[in-house]
Amino acid sequence: MNSSSQRAGSHSGAASDTLVGRQAADAHGATLLPLAGRWCAEMPADVRPELLAAHFPAVINKLALAWPDPKRARRLLEELLIDRRGGRSGFPKGAFSELIRLHGLISLTASDTTPQDIWF
Questions:
Q1: What is this structure's pTM?
Q2: Is residue 20 within 8 Å of residue 38, measured between CB atoms?
């Protein structure tokens, strides 16, 4: 088993420790930025996006940069969750679930509005 598949399947604390120094690359050659690795590692364990970090580092890079601005982060997550252009294949179930949990977290921490259901 290679190190990428070990990271993708693991949700232990030890796996999250490796997020900080990870140099995983996605299919397009994107690698996880150190800032994004630290952001992931600092997330509460129940919302830590380990599958996204392992398989979609470009997404995590964008989220980590947007996260300090809750409105921007929520908007980015909604763009990732909802296919407004049509014909997109979407994320695998586990990665999609991580995006949903992150959306719930940022919705709770956003100070400008109460949490909203993105499906309505």
A1: 0.69
A2: yes
